[in-house]
């Protein structure tokens, strides 16, 4: 009965942290793989190394072969580059623009705030997958276009989150003092507001990264993301989907790679100390 | 209902209408940017420049974009969705049957996922911290963290490859008996139910846990009410608003879900139609499909907001 009132964190505090450490290690591993992929892949991603297609896992071809008999391990390792790289670039642009706009809107107020909020809320009302489908079809699937599309789709969310936090800070006394001192807007958002919201904003950055990885994979899976011969994890699942009836590793491994990355980021954020991930939404 | 709530609801509806206009505008312009000149695509490579110019004129492609947008909007008000470029059929006729298919898929998924998710979410909140709660929580986080196509592939692996209960692909046209029908719908519905329920379970659990930490629930606890009574009589009625809100919000995830599910299972619905239309650059078809999806999505999130307003006792 007392459980209702007690904090679950104090009950399971230790094991939670272990989960967080494991999650952080998985993320670190994928980051290192993304950086050093070209140096560590055993075969070139275009080489056909297996006589059979959808080959099983065995020595030399640790993750089997794909629908053309190419080495799956190399393709998954290189795929990490595209999935992690594109998503990271997109989330950086989305969060930077969203957070700056959100802080400016909160500090300035008035019509700028109203117009921006109304417009970005409307953008938020377009389902992300549909938005991606239409925009990618319009501007193409080159890597810069993909990064920008994904960033634009997630700016409204980052804006909303940062603005809600900044509005609270904006009512504090030190903000009034800074205003009376005659500080510029750039100073207000950079030196007064940002340091006070940076931790929840970073947690939000992680969550948004997961959304972007999922959307990018979804688009690539539909054939509208990265185009051959490049292949991210979503595209790897798509091109090997024919192996599904034989449960080929070629279709399962890229899915597992996506899952390991997104679940790790989610778990890491969930297991950050309360102070850091303090978010109200 | 007092005038305060009525005002808030009206304001929310007005915002929804303005949002819809902005969204329509955005969809129209995004599709106008699709690469390639529609007239020359339609006529093929052998077309003379004169023929292309003539077709552009006939399709009003030379008019300013704003004029074309207004004409399209006016047509929508009359129920005229335009004519498909690809096969010259009215868009309304193309969409009609497929719309029913998608709604069937969404409807069956809703009927299955809502009771399932509410049961799991509420019981998990009641048994908070137990092994059962942790299992439900970890499973729902897992499903939320992976792409929809992975849930679909896992469902195919489990039910079609290992258990061999169901076919991997569905085709509504081949349905003759009830068993056929169940087998066809099973896989898409299972996948969608997983995706939607995971969201709903998390939100329902959070809503009930929040209510359970309020002073009046503690009061009920102190006066000696049983756990069941405490949850069913004291907490649930107050958590109803947030729960219904959670249901409406989760159902809006159906929009993203059907796009993937219809594509992977080759289900003849409106999302599949749209993905194909993007491939053939069929502007009127893309616009209409996108509009239907946005409309459905907007409807659900507006309903969720209005329920949240109405269920706040401080506003009643």
UniProtKB/TrEMBL annotation, chain A:
Chief place where the protein resides: membrane
UniProt xrefs under CDD domains: TM_PBP2
InterPro entries (UniProt xref): BP-dependent_transpt_permease, MetI-like, MetI-like_sf
GO CC annotation terms, alphabetical: plasma membrane
Membrane topology listed for this record: Multi-pass membrane protein
Keywords of the record: Cell membrane, Membrane, Transmembrane, Transmembrane helix, Transport
Membrane-spanning residues: 18-41, 82-111, 131-155, 205-226, 246-269
Name of the protein in question: ABC transporter permease
Record organism: Mesorhizobium jarvisii
From TrEMBL, chain B:
Primary residence: membrane
Subcellular location(s) per record: Cell membrane
Pfam families xrefs: BPD_transp_1, BPD_transp_1_N
Xref: PROSITE patterns: ABC_TM1
Keywords on record: Cell membrane, Membrane, Transmembrane, Transmembrane helix, Transport
Cross-referenced Gene3D superfamilies: MetI-like (1.10.3720.10)
Membrane-crossing residue ranges in chain numbering: 12-34, 105-127, 139-162, 182-201, 239-265, 285-310
Gene Ontology CC terms, in alphabetical order: plasma membrane
UniProt membrane topology term: Multi-pass membrane protein
Top-level division of the source organism's lineage: Bacteria
SUPFAM superfamilies, A to Z: MetI-like (SSF161098)
Gene Ontology BP terms: transmembrane transport
Family, as annotated: Belongs to the binding-protein-dependent transport system permease family.
Designated name of the protein: ABC transporter permease
Source organism per UniProt: Mesorhizobium jarvisii
